[in-house]
Here is the input.
Amino acid sequence: MSDNRVSFFDTTLRDGEQAPGYSMTLDEKLRMARELENLGVDVIEAGFAIASPGDFESVRQISKSIRNTTVCSLSRALAKDIDAAAESLEGAAHPRIHTFLATSDLHLQYKLKMSREDALQQVKAMVAYARNKCAEVEFSAEDASRTDPDFLCRVIEAAIANGASVVNLPDTVGYATPSEIAQMVNNIRSRVPNIDRATISMHVHDDLGLAVANSLAGVMAGARQVECTVCGIGERAGNAALEEVVMGLRTRKDFYGLEYGIRTEEIGKAARLLSSITGIKPFPSKSIVGANAFAHESGIHQHGLMNNLQTYEIMTPESVGVKKTELVLGKHSGRHAFEERLKTLGYNFPKDRIEKLFEAFKKTADRKKTVSDRDIVALAETAVPLVGNPEKMYFLESFVVNSGNRMSSTANVVLKRGGKNYQEVALGTGPIYASIRAVEKIIHHPFSLEDYSIQAVTEHRDALGEASVKIRDETGIYRGRGVSTDIIEASILACLSAVNKMLDENQSAIGTGAASSTQRTFEQDMLGCGHTDKQFPQS
Ligand code: KIV
Ligand code: ZN
Here is the structure.
């Protein structure tokens, strides 16, 4: 690799997915992996093959489907882990085994109960073992930033001597400062005799908010691989955010003078896909991808921008795939204009999906004066179910709610499935609770509500509300999002999106109405909160 090029190792699907709330299904991981390939990352860490059968299958499927990017599986420095990693990577065009062992005294003594010498022998043996199974091996010295520098040099030298072509120096707990990171990299570069045979990699956590600064400090000192995740998701406070590292390199090319293969114009799309999969949006002021990252509110700023964009804009929204010119569509806009706008926003949907989306757009345009790009993005990511057979899915036909401050709420919901309508009435402490209960009664499949949130997509009075739900049954957790100018409708749509995924995963349970004894239902959840039907006798 050129000395001048920084390679991007994306671990959204491994370190990122480990973070609470970010777990993904196999199908979601595949979609994310394809998007990462499109974004131009050099390596996709697809999972930790030995961790679970689901992780193994994800690495296997991603290996089969990704042809241009290196696919990697994590493994501890243990033969059984390396065997699983190698097996899961069998179909990969460019496989890499990433094996790691902690090297700090703290981890050796309290976690691994191992001496430094034993650890060194294990690194030698296991890197060689991995190298026998895979042409490309990366070794990580976990907690490198808190490892004795002399010992770290010995470990890295041994890893390279036994076949590692990438050596990773994690700041596992986000403890180091940028100058300490630079010192660690300089130490390795000047004291490890065979370092010219390997690429130095940074893997930095954000516990003190320094992940990006530390990654770039490592790069300045000579590291040529950065491990990061989309939006910086990852264990605890997360990892270095890919979009921030690469836009640092791009915006300050004058300072760093380095190349990379990321197509930065695809960043917005990758971040949107991640949030549509996980149901978690970046906070509004998040660099690069937050909703306010390119919004200029203050009059002084706006005035400066009008005279010269560079006064307050160091990079353009277009350079990260965020469209600034908020062209608005309305109820008179035709299918063609809508389709063009979808394409500009990065969505290339098949005809039937555009058709459904256009219907949702028209409905929204009837209720709202103007439909902005942000509304369209919200619709594109929520209005049309993404998985399963449409014949087996439930769609919202109609609903009526009756609610007030001195009464229980009643929801009358009609869902359509396979051409037939199903109707139920349910009571609840609020209209959303009552509506979700009615859905649960119709589908005859119990679930618990793990999480619910609602937020406005735009700022105006007629803003679309975007509801996110996370439901659980015994097969797993399912997320859904829904948008509408009516927050109850948005909530029902979000619930249906999650419900359809759940039923698709669990077809055999449909219609039986059989709740397992361990399965908590949505109703029981609410009982736990003191809301019961007993309080609201059905009349
Ligand atoms: O944070 C860390 O040290 C890791 C390693 C397994 C690379 O995630
Ligand atoms: Zn990590």
The pocket of 3-methyl-2-oxobutanoic acid (ligand 1) is lined by residues 15, 100, 140, 142, 168, 170, 172, 203, 205 (CB under 6 Å).
